[in-house]
């Protein structure tokens, strides 16, 4: 992956928020957020929602906010 | 389109909440009608706007950030833009988030639509120092850009003029080549990369440079996501959670256990006596249901506190950071980072974790992760750890339970590495890319709802599974296999249940656990891990059917293990916990594995796990007794 999108993806993979990625890359925050959102639509990234990771016994995977529920 | 037109169809496109519908309402007034998008139930609003002698049918499309749709509404917007038959698109641009709006504009341009841009929220953007240079933006885009305010109508006259002109001149966005409608889906990534690079150029030309300051969230991340500090910080947080949980929950659990052993047992016995219930029914109700279910019910306060702690961690954004830290560790070990999310789910429950492996794109990765999932220590196993930790290490229960989770993580990694270097050498590791939210303060309402939902779920599952399991165990305990006893009137050691448990028990001698109560609870735990504690309590209750005066479950377990281990109860208790962690998945997990991977992989993995658990637990006891 190359260009702005690739650079934002690299930053996200390193554990940065879109805002931190924007600061590091000196691009507008909404551009980094747009790249993250489009990466999610393209299936490259996963958005960390609330409630992932604590599926209780007997619950389906579709807990509120679970990234797998989408 | 001819140079002079009488009617035209114009699409109004934009991100959600960009002020598009406000603009639509202002310019069309009462001349609106609601129609269903072709072939869907998605409602679209159309209106008529007289523009310089042309009757424009203006279509207010659902708001979307991208033409790669994720909902029926977004699909309608994407279809309307990409299908032929429209004359022009008016793309509403949010001046406070212009780059994001420009991405959609670029996609519309790529679909081949002539475009006029309407710029909204300019007052807000200027107040924030983000106001774009409209003339420079229009020059960079190569299409008209008109500042409008749908609330006041400011700019709508200029927008009408721009639309009228555009219907004659068909302005195209500079720097974007329209693509064929039947492009390949695989091209989407390339197109997205090109569009983002194009936006960066536009931003350089027309947007003020806005400095992004380092936030406190960024500063915290420097520590918590540091490759060296991240894992120790995570371990410290989890250790603190278990310390807090065990310290706060211990008196509550004691109270709940006293309630079950005292008033509940007494009331049940009294009620059945008053109803002249037969002895077998009293035995089943008191020794089976009340003892078995009650033992697990006493964990409800603890589970609620545990769920509250974890909900705080996740709603603050910290758990997502754990996935990132763990991803690095996994990749360093040659494992796929994206497996982290199913594995984290596995610490809640293994069954949905197996379903969650669907997030992995390759079948071999799904298989590898699915075989690792049963080694993640689900919350059902937590009840066993807590009972045994409080029994054998009452002053360090939190630390011992924490250690079990560390062992679980170590086993997951070691099992994954072993599988990857032997039977799954062709699995290809790839990184996890996750969009981290900023840290935030948990909301009390969210916290309450999360804890309530999970606790109710735990109670339902524990209640239903344990009720069925206890009933089955009670039937096995009522069937005599030796001694010539009558049905339902048999000492437990002569029942099918007792005889089986006694046959299995010697196998556990190297673990210091050569006792039929323990063997029975481990066998029962394969049905569901929640049953382990219930079956243990039930076997003691049936052996000693006196009510209200029996020793506490912890005391009975301690006495049993003291005897079976030759006085090395601590080492045997640890071995017990390690064995429960690793020995066999529950029935539901095995069934899901068989469905996903077939019975050969399931049986092979189960056999490997059982062997590993046996060897490990034996080592723990044998080494532990020497220490």
Q: Can you give me a brief rundown of this structure?
A:
The complex is a heterodimer of chains A (70) and B (627). With 70 residues, chain A is mainly alpha-helical.
The major β-sheet of chain B equals: 7 strands, mixed
The protein's oligomeric status is: heterodimer
Helix content of chain A: 40-55%
Strand content of chain B: 5-15%
Q: What's the total count of β strands of chain B?
A: 8
How does the helix and strand content of chain B classify structurally? alpha/beta
What's the overall average pLDDT of chain A, rounded?
75
Query: Gyration radius of chain A, to the nearest Å?
Result: 14 Å
Radius of gyration of chain B: 33 Å
Count the E strands of chain A: 1
Mean pLDDT reading of chain B: 85
What are the low-pLDDT stretches of chain A, counting only 5+ consecutive residues below 50? 50-70
Which chains have the largest interface?
A: A-B, 56 and 81 residues
How many separate helices of chain A? 3
Largest beta-sheet details of chain A: none
Question: What is the helix content of chain B?
Answer: 55-70%
Structure description:
The complex is a heterodimer of chains A (70) and B (627). Chain A has 70 residues and is mainly alpha-helical. Chain A contains three helices and one strand, in the order αααβ. The C terminus of chain A is likely disordered. Chain B is α/β, with parallel strands linked by helices and 627 residues long. Chain B is built from 25 helices and eight strands. The model of chain B has no long low-confidence stretch (mean pLDDT 85). The interface between A and B is large, with 56 and 81 residues.
Topology:
The complex is a heterodimer of chains A (70) and B (627).
Chain A: H1 3-13, H2 18-25, H3 29-41, E1 46-47
Chain B: E1 7-14, H1 20-28, E2 32-36, E3 43-51, E4 54-60, H2 72-82, E5 88-94, H3 98-110, E6 115-120, H4 122-127, H5 134-141, E7 145-147, H6 156-169, H7 188-206, H8 216-224, H9 230-274, H10 279-297, H11 300-315, H12 318-332, H13 340-346, H14 350-356, H15 363-372, H16 379-392, H17 397-421, E8 434-435, H18 444-478, H19 496-504, H20 516-525, H21 530-543, H22 553-564, H23 569-582, H24 587-597, H25 599-626
Parallel strand pairs in B: 1-4, 1-5, 5-6, 6-7
Antiparallel strand pairs in B: 2-3, 3-4
Helix pairs in contact in B: 3-7, 5-7, 9-10, 9-11, 9-17, 10-18, 10-21, 11-18, 13-14, 14-24, 15-17, 16-17, 16-22, 16-23, 17-23, 18-21, 19-20, 20-21, 23-25, 24-25
């Amino acid at each position: 992956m190359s260009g702005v999108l690739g650079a934002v993806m690299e930053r996200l993979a390193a554990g940065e928020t879109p805002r931190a990625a924007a600061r590091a890359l000196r691009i507008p925050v909404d551009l980094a957020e747009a790249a993250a959102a489009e990466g999610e639509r393209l299936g490259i990234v996963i958005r960390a929602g609330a409630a992932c990771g604590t599926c209780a016994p007997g619950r389906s995977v579709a807990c509120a906010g679970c990234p797998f529920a989408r | 389109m001819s140079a002079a037109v009488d009617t035209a169809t114009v699409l109004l496109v934009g991100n959600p909440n960009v002020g598009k519908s406000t603009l639509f309402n202002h310019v069309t007034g009462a001349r609106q009608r609601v129609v269903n998008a072709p072939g869907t139930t998605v409602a679209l609003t159309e209106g008529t706007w007289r523009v310089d002698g042309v009757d424009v049918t203006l279509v207010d499309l659902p708001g979307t950030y991208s033409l790669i749709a994720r909902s029926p509404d977004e699909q309608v917007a994407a279809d309307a833009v990409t299908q032929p038959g429209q004359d022009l698109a008016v793309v509403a641009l949010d001046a406070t988030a212009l780059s994001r709006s420009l991405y959609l504009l670029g996609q519309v341009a790529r679909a081949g639509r002539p475009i006029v841009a309407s710029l909204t929220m300019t007052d807000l953007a200027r107040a924030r120092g983000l106001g774009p240079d409209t003339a420079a933006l229009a020059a960079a885009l190569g299409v008209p850009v008109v500042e409008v305010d749908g609330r006041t109508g400011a700019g709508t006259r200029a927008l009408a003029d721009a639309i009228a002109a555009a219907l004659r001149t068909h302005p195209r966005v500079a720097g974007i080549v329209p693509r064929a409608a039947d492009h390949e889906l695989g091209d989407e990534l390339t197109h997205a990369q090109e569009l983002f690079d194009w936006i960066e150029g536009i931003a350089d030309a027309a947007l003020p440079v806005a400095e992004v300051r380092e936030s406190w969230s960024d500063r915290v991340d420097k520590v918590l996501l540091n490759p060296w500090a991240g894992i120790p910080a995570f371990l410290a947080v989890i250790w603190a959670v278990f310390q807090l949980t065990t310290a706060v929950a211990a008196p509550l659990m004691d109270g709940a256990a006293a309630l079950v052993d005292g008033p509940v047992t007494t009331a049940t016995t009294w009620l059945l006596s008053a109803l002249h219930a037969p002895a077998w029914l009293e035995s089943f109700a008191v020794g089976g249901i009340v003892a078995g279910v009650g033992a697990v019910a006493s964990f409800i306060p603890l589970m609620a506190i545990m769920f509250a702690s974890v909900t705080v961690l996740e709603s603050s954004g910290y758990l997502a950071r754990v996935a990132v830290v763990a991803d690095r560790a996994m990749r360093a070990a040659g494992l796929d980072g994206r497996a982290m999310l199913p594995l984290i789910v596995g610490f809640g429950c293994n069954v949905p974790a197996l379903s969650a492996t669907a997030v992995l794109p390759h079948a071999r990765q799904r298989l590898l992760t699915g075989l690792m999932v049963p080694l993640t220590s689900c919350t059902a196993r937590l009840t066993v750890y807590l009972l045994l930790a409080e029994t054998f290490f009452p002053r360090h229960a939190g630390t011992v339970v924490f250690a079990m989770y560390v062992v679980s993580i170590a086993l997951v990694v070691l099992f994954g590495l072993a599988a990857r270097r032997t039977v799954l050498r062709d699995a290809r590791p790839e990184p996890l890319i996750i969009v981290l939210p900023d840290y935030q303060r948990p909301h009390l309402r969210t916290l309450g709802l999360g804890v309530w939902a999970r606790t109710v779920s735990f109670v339902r599952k524990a209640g239903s599974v344990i009720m069925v399991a206890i009933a089955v165990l009670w039937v096995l305990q009522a069937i005599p296999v030796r001694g010539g006893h009558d049905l339902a009137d048999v000492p437990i050691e002569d029942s099918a249940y007792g005889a089986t448990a006694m046959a299995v028990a010697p196998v556990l001698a190297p673990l210091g656990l050569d006792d039929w109560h323990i063997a029975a609870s481990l066998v029962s735990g394969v049905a569901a891990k929640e049953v382990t504690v219930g079956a243990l309590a039930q076997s003691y209750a049936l052996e000693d059917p006196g009510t209200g005066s029996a020793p506490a479950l912890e005391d009975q377990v301690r006495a049993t293990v003291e005897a079976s281990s030759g006085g090395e109860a601590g080492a045997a208790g640890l071995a017990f916990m390690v064995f429960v962690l690793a020995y066999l998945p529950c029935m539901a997990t095995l069934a899901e594995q068989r469905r996903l991977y077939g019975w050969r992989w399931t049986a092979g993995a189960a056999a490997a796990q059982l062997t590993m658990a046996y060897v490990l637990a034996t080592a723990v006891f044998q080494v532990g007794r020497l220490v």
